[in-house]
Structure formats: structure tokens, C-alpha cells
Amino acid sequence: MSNLETIVSISTPMGTGALSVIRCSGKSVPTIIKNFFGKELVPRRANYLDIKKNNKVLDDVVAIYYLGPKSFTGEDMLEIMCHGGPVMYQLIIKEILKIKNCRLAIAGEFSERAFLNNKMSILEAESICALINAKTEEAALAARDSLSGKIIQDLFKIDALILQIRIQVEALLDFSEEDIEIDGLKTIESHIKNCKEEILVLIKKLEKNKLLFETSKVAVIGKPNTGKSSLINFLTEEDVSIVNKQAGTTRDVVSKIFSLDGFPVTIFDTAGIRETSDTIEKEGKEKALKQATSANIILYLYDVTIGIDNDDIKILKSLKKINKNILIIANKIDLATKETFSEIKKNNSENLIISIKENINMNELRSEILEYLKLAISDTSSGIYHIKQVKHLKAAYKEINDIEVNLIELEIIAEKLKQTQENISMILDNNDDDRVLSGIFSNFCIGK
Ligand SMILES: Nc1nc2c(ncn2[C@@H]2O[C@H](COP(=O)(O)OP(=O)(O)OP(=O)(O)O)[C@@H](O)[C@H]2O)c(=O)[nH]1
Ligand SMILES: [Mg+2]
Description:
single chain; alpha/beta; Gyrase A, domain 2; Rossmann fold; 3 domains; six-stranded mixed beta sheet; 15 helices; binds magnesium ion
């Protein structure tokens, strides 16, 4: 990236509003100030002035100048608050872009510059991105928490702990075997145990954040009439899909984002799968299978009064080939008579038995979906949040978990601790490859 270029963008949502904020960052900011305000601005002070082009007033605005490096990006920056409405901000931006070396910013470019100028870590960049894109209150609060540097603090704590253990191990290495007190080894062992626990807690926390920040995809699949649409309406607490006793009601994929105990989830209702000559239903079936491929987990519904029949087995077999995260759910248990109830339970013991209609086991279903999602995302490396951190933490955990504390292996222990610490350092380092960077910053909105 050439920092010769000054980037310009709208930072408030595009469209009509009371105010719009235009942001500029780069070397041409002093020129912009001189050209449009005709005077220099005192940094970090709100100035109420006219923004003029060739002596013609375009608008009266509030402008704040930030002198680099004391700015969000670390460069010279200018924020102009003009009257809202697309015409005014577009007019001002158009005029600013006429200045040499000024161009429109791409999504996330302000934050990317802040990162490159060491104004924020990759973790903070991710947190800002998560905060802006938060779909639930819990996600916003978790992003705020990690933005406040809590995760970095935890990492430094782990780093310091490993260093302490390394020093203890090095000290033991300097003694001859006879002189070593067994207490020394015991202390190392207990510190290693603590450290392992801290690393695991952090991995869990980051994985939970990942689940909060990235909207997971859940596809509901099953034969016609098993209650897929009813389930979607129940979970989202809305009439998202048509429910009808007629088999083949849902033809297209219907989706809805909702908060599953605070975790944002997009749920996909799909057409019931069965052999059919109906071309629309056939297309619906194909779409359902496509959805199953890209979902994090599949909820496979069947009618408990019918049980899992050959068709279910056939569908499940083909589903397993495209997605192994399948939660099998038996619905309509309310229809079971007292006599058949225990028989049904016995035959379906591996699966969750529910009744959407009578709200039986629905809380269990919610928690099971969440648990399943956690498992599903922990063994994927896709997504944009915490990929690097979780990868290095897991590598660090692997090293430290391998350690067997005994006198003969002191040198191996020292080496493994070194590897553990190197992995932690890699998270704390601000050196990231372009793949990670573009992944994060392109998810930012324009002007951030
Ligand atoms: N008794 C009982 N009926 C249910 C339950 N869940 C859904 N139903 C009924 O089953 C019928 C089918 O429900 P839907 O939700 O439309 O089923 P679907 O799987 O979406 O069906 P298709 O879109 O046709 O594939 C409706 O009459 C629902 O009221 C349940 O737990 N118990
Ligand atoms: Mg349906």
C-alpha cells in the first residue's frame, strides 16, 4: 500500500440522516484543510466553519483535525461533520478527491492503516470488526470486552507464566542431579498445570467469541411434513415459514437470522426431501442439499411416530458425504400414546426426542444445537475471527501438554516450553500475512 495516497470516505451510513461524517487520512490532509477552510486548524479541537470551494460555501460543518501519529490511523486525519443526506457528502467528497493523491478508501482501509502503523493489534482490529458487525447484544458486549484489551492481558499473563517456568527449568539444568530438590520439580509441574489451564480457558473463550461474532449457519433437513418449518418458526419466534399438514409445503429455501441464547444463527428452512416428479419440488430438494453442504451443522428431523425408515437412511447417507455435523432429532413425541412412549424412547435412544407443538425438550434442543455448533466450529479453520490466535494457542497447548516433568527430560522440557512461548509470541506479534489481513479488513464497512 502506498501511504502517499490520502484516503477519503463517508464514515456514517450512506443515505439520509441528520449528520454525515467524512473521514480523510494521509499526507494531503493539511492541503485539504487549507483548500477548503482557508486556514490551519488546531489539532484535536472541534471547529465550526464553512467549507468552501473557490469562495463558494458548500456547507457549514464541524471539522476536527488529528495530527499524526495521535490519530486513529496514526496518520494526519480530518473528520468533517456535514449536514446529512447523500447529496451534500457526495459533493464534498467529490471536491476533496480533486486534490492530488486523494482517492476513495476501500472497506476497512482506515483500520488497516491503523494496524500497519501499530496503532492497534490484530486482535483489536478483529474486535472492532466484530463490534460493527455484531448481530446480537452478547456479540457486541464480547467484542467490547476483547477491544478493551482483556484477551491481550490474558496472553501476557500466560507469556509471563511460561517465562517463569522456563527460568525455573534453566535453574535446575545448572545443578547436578544430586543437588536438585524434588520441590523444584513439583513447583514446575504445578506451574505447567496452571499454564495449561489458562491456555485452554483462552481457547474456549476465543472459540465462544468466534461463535458470537460469526453468524453460524444451521440447515434444517428432513422428509416432508416432519416439522422443519414449525421448528424454524419456534426457534425464531416468528412466522418465517408456512406450516401446513400437507406434505411438500416448503419449496424454496427460507432463511432467517436470529439469536440463539445470544449467539447469532442463520437458520435455513428447506424443502422436504422425497422422490418426486414435481419439478419445483425437485429443484427445492437440490437447493436443500446445497444448503446442507455450506451449513455449519444440519438438524435432521424425522417423525418419531414413523421412525427412521429407509428413505431417512438414504438421505442421511448422502448428507453424511457432504457434511458430517448432523444432529438427528425425532419430532412429534406428543403423538405417542402412553403405551408406545417407552417403546419409541427405546428405539430412538441416540437421538433427541422433541415435540415442537407441545414444547417438549425444546430447551434441551437449543443447548444441544449450541454445543454442536461449538464442536463444529472448533474443527474448522474457516471464518475470519481468531483463526491465527486459536491456531497458535492450540499449537502452544500441544507443546506444553506433551511435557512430562522428570529430571531426565529437563532439556526436552526447556525446548518444549520455548516452543510454547514462541507460539504465544506469534499471537502477540503484529506480523501478519496478507491473507489474514485482507480477510479481516475486507469485512469492515467503508469508512472504518
Ligand atoms: N403433533 C405434532 N404435529 C406437529 C409437530 N410439529 C409439526 N407438526 C405438524 O406437522 C405438520 C407439518 O409441519 P411443517 O412444519 O409444515 O413440516 P415441514 O417439515 O416443514 O413440511 P414440508 O415443508 O412439507 O417439508 C403441520 O401440520 C404441523 O402443525 C409436533 O411436534 N407435533
Ligand atoms: Mg416446510
